[in-house]
């Protein structure tokens, strides 16, 4: 019985099919409109605005572009380094000097590292040994390389010093020899056993400051062993150069090892306020002087007018 409700004649079935097709067509038409829709014409004002923004964008790119291509179309990220040739010593030149000579930074770093490891260029030809230094670069820099003489002659100086020390030990005085301590020079002093170049210079320099030795014991003041040296020396006190307390300057008095700055200043001030000095006793009231000072100074000062 229910089949009666779904039974259609041939004409009815055709009508239903046509109706379904029409319904589907109505719903699909809006979806097909964009395919046939013509693009809208762009407003002239909007077109001009778009072109203006585009041109401004291109101009900003040109301003921020770091470098432009050169005439030969080769890109140069950095300006060409200017080479300045000047005289230099590879043992003392700094990094800026090497860079100005046209050496690349990595090569400069290697040179400085070599020097920090106590490496030295003793001759201009040694500069050729730098790693990856081109022969053309070396020939260009060679006329400007100047090695200091101290480094060039280091080995020669050491050799001459060694030979000098050897000559000093060749000849020594025999026991019983006596020399004048105030007249002997360094060459003669070095002939005494136990005295080398250093001690001989120390004796002569201290003798110059004193004005001459008046006692052998004064050698203790320069840390020498008097008992070992006493048999070799004699002293002539008449050769002492005295300081005139009435005429000597502050600097001259301070040069003497027995007069300090404060004592020299007292002497100068005394001369200004009280006149000439006749004897050291006139300075005994000043706390800068002690009886021991007067005893040591007595052989080395005079009060001539």
Description:
The chain has helices spanning 10-36, 44-64, 95-100, 105-116, 135-141, 149-152, 154-168, 186-189, 197-210, 226-229, 250-255, 261-274, 291-297, and strands at 179-180, 233-234, 243-244, 301-302. It is mainly α and 305 residues long. Among the domains are: 95-152, no CATH class; 179-239, DNA polymerase, domain 1 (Orthogonal Bundle); 243-302. Helices cover 46% and strands 3% of the residues. The strands form two sheets. Strands 1-2 form a two-stranded parallel ribbon. A two-stranded parallel sheet has the order 3-4. Residues 67-78 and 151-157 have low confidence and may be disordered.
Would you spell out the secondary-structure blueprint of this structure?
Blueprint: H1 10-36, H2 44-64, H3 95-100, H4 105-116, H5 135-141, H6 149-152, H7 154-168, E1 179-180, H8 186-189, H9 197-210, H10 226-229, E2 233-234, E3 243-244, H11 250-255, H12 261-274, H13 291-297, E4 301-302
Parallel strand pairs: 1-2, 3-4
Shape: elongated
The CATH architecture of the domain at 179-239 comes to Orthogonal Bundle
Element-by-element helix/strand order? HHHHHHHEHHHEEHHHE
Alpha-beta content class? mainly alpha
Main sheet: which strands, in order across? 1-2
